[in-house]
Write a structure and sequence with these properties.
Layout: H1 2-11, H2 14-32, H3 37-45, H4 54-79, H5 88-99, H6 103-138, H7 141-157, H8 163-177, E1 180-181, E2 188-189, H9 203-222, H10 237-245, H11 247-262, H12 267-281, H13 294-310, H14 312-318, H15 324-335, H16 342-347, H17 349-372, H18 374-378, H19 385-401, H20 407-425, H21 431-454, H22 462-492, H23 503-523, H24 532-558, H25 565-587, H26 589-604, H27 609-629
Antiparallel strand pairs: 1-2
């Protein structure tokens, strides 16, 4: 207790408390900006930590880390664009609730669930560090690989109605994740001779392209606000009531997230989907999932905040970052002369508990601030979307460009935006692609080490068999229930349900098989160690793509094509967004932004000329100011480049 009270006394020094709240505010702001999130927040704050003493500098970073997954709920719910990749389940369920006029409920539930997750993570951090060492060391690379595989399976099977498409999307995500240099062999994979691809794709760009761009296109084309109905903006008790209804589910989600944080490099992206899958499997009525189910928000938000804090356990014990933000925090520890490891627990107890107090206070204060502004934030759902679509897209471009500061960032953003748009209208789940991309790195590392150390005998290890049962048993149960449903349908002989396909589904089905087939051709030219994980994605991917193509072809023959009306209305906006990316490449971002803002603000937002010009000028100055803050220049064009500053 003396170390606990000493740490609290140290933290409550004026400078350190100010640093904690400054980091918390920065984390909240960047968490609300699509594509920037926690990684960008701690990256931008890192140069400022050296303005403080060691404890205050670390508190600055911890304040940002602790609230990112709380504030990113705002973007996920109101826009449908995940503020961070781990917010994808919240984006799916919360955005659907916002469209029904329940944005305040979804936001309040998300904030409170995140607070509980943060507190569970802080308590776990306090008690688990002394005892977690032997547990983590007991997990070998085979078990870590299987944990990653479980996370991938849950993301593939629990989202969407079609497990074939979900698994194929996950395989495609793995392929995206292996682009670039192979870690275990002297090979560059799937680069097509482009230097930009040699370093692989950025997680920020993949998340923004698949989710955010497609949502902005849809909202801009539909006109009006996010919600067609009147929002309840003055009564926050609905969010508290939803929190109380799901209190035990939130706690279970937080515990799932805590366990996920213990596994290095898997983190919130996998554990959030495991928690979401638990919410679905434990629900009596699964039909609401994907359409605005509050249980999905409760489990996911409880898990992701707990994970990002428990990520610090392997970071502090073994100098193995649990996630990207933890990696930056590890660098700050080294800079201040602290060297994480088992000895650090005994030699720096005050520092350890200062970390615990920092994340606990930031979790409570961050949720309190977010919950207090929920009624005001919910008003954004009635704002004409054209007014906020323009700055959102500008922020997305900035968030993508800060990855490598190459025009390739912009190109990949809009190409993946096109893919995400097709997947959205084909009802193909996009989340498995993102999860597959995130897990490709750790899966390849674990898979290669496993085969080097154990050959194929690792398949018989008890831990591997136990973890594999998390996949096999639910899959067998799903097959059994499907078989029973077919038998009951034959007995009852209901009217046959007419299945239909669509242009979007056909386009994706036709393209999927050649993509996997070409990837197989390319992979056979790589060294054995470089093609191990690609083949893990390619072999099932080819089989799944062939099955999906045959099914869609049969539906095309037996039923007329169904082209969704909203997709037709979105095509001009899709071309506008793609054209914006092309003009950036030719004339630079500033000229392209002026043209884009003129079309959006005058044409889609319906602003008058002078008010539109003033609003557009403010947006142009703001986005250039953001680039200055990140210490980079806006993208320049090949033909012409105009810079404001």
């Amino acid at each position: 207790m003396e170390h606990v009270t000493a740490a609290l006394y140290e933290l409550f020094g004026p400078t350190r408390l100010l640093a904690l709240f400054a980091g918390m505010i920065a984390g909240m702001v960047f968490g609300m900006l699509p594509g920037l999130g926690g990684i960008a927040a701690v990256s931008i704050l890192l140069p400022f930590v050296f303005l403080f003493d060691d404890y205050a500098g670390l508190a600055l970073l911890l304040g940002a880390i602790s609230v990112v997954y709380t504030s990113d709920t705002i973007t996920s719910v109101l826009v449908g664009a995940p503020g961070s990749p781990a917010s994808a389940p919240t984006s799916i369920e919360g955005h659907a609730m916002a469209k029904e006029g329940k944005a305040a409920t979804a936001l309040g539930l998300g904030f409170l669930a995140s607070m509980v997750g943060g507190l569970v993570g802080a308590v776990t951090l306090a008690f688990a560090i002394p005892i977690a060492g032997p547990i983590v060391l007991a997990l070998g690379t085979p078990e870590l690989f299987m944990f990653a595989l479980v996370g991938l399976y849950f993301a593939s099977s629990m989202v969407g109605k079609d497990i074939l498409v979900g698994l194929m999307a996950a395989c495609f995500g793995l392929l995206l994740g292996v682009i670039g240099a192979a870690p275990a062999a002297a090979n560059y994979r799937f680069t097509f001779g482009a230097p930009y691809l040699m370093d692989g794709l950025s997680l920020t760009i993949v998340a923004l392209g698949l989710f955010a761009v497609a949502e902005v296109i849809g909202m801009l084309a539909s006109g009006g606000g996010i919600s067609a109905g009147r929002q309840v903006i003055s009564n926050w008790t609905s969010g508290f009531a939803a929190f109380w209804r799901n209190r035990w589910l939130i706690l279970r989600g937080a515990l799932i997230g805590t366990v996920g944080g213990f596994v290095p490099a898997v983190g919130a992206n996998a554990s959030t989907w495991v928690a979401y899958g638990h919410a679905m499997s434990s629900s009596k009525d699964k039909s609401r999932f994907g359409k605005g189910e509050e249980r999905g928000i409760a489990a996911a938000e409880g898990a992701n905040n707990a994970t990002v804090i428990s990520d610090l356990v392997p970071t502090l014990l073994f100098s193995v970052p649990g996630g990207p933000a933890a990696a930056i925090f590890l660098g700050a520890l080294f800079s201040f002369g602290f060297y994480p490891g088992p000895r650090m627990v005994a030699e720096q107890p005050t520092l350890m508990y200062l970390i615990v107090w920092s994340v606990a206070i930031a979790s409570i204060a961050g949720a309190g601030i977010c919950f207090a502004v929920t009624p005001f934030v919910a008003k954004l759902t009635k704002v004409r979307f054209g007014l906020i679509a323009a700055p959102l897209l500008l922020i997305m471009v900035a968030g993508a460009y800060q990855a490598t500061q190459s025009l390739g960032d912009i190109a990949v953003l809009f190409v993946l935006g096109l893919v995400g748009w097709f997947m959205k209208h084909a009802d193909w789940p996009r989340a498995p692609v993102l999860v597959g991309f995130v897990l490709a790195g750790p899966m390849e590392q674990y898979f290669w080490l496993t085969n080097q150390l154990h050959g194929w005998s690792w398949l018989y290890r008890p831990g591997v068999l136990i973890i594999a049962s998390f996949i096999i048993l639910p899959l067998l149960y799903k097959l059994w229930t499907s078989y029973r449903a077919r038998r009951e349908a034959l007995v009852e002989q209901p009217a046959p349900k007419r299945e239909e396909t669509s242009i979007a589904r056909l386009v994706l089905a036709v393209l999927a098989l050649p993509v996997f087939a070409y990837a197989a051709y390319e992979a056979m030219g790589y060294r054995p160690n470089a093609r191990m994980l690609p083949l893990v994605a390619i072999v099932p991917g080819v089989l799944l793509a062939a099955l999906v193509l045959l099914r869609e072809a049969r539906l095309m023959v037996t039923s007329p094509l169904r082209v969704r009306l909203e997709a037709r209305e979105e095509i001009p906006v899709l071309l506008l967004v793609l054209g914006y990316g092309a003009v950036i490449a030719l004339l630079g971002m500033n000229i392209a932004t002026v043209l884009f803002l003129a079309i959006v603000l005058l044409g889609y937002a319906g602003m008058r000329y002078w008010t539109g010009a003033l609003y557009g000028a403010l947006l142009l100055l703001a986005i250039n100011g953001m680039f200055m803050l990140m210490r980079i220049q806006p993208p320049g064009g090949y033909l012409l480049d105009w810079q404001i500053f």
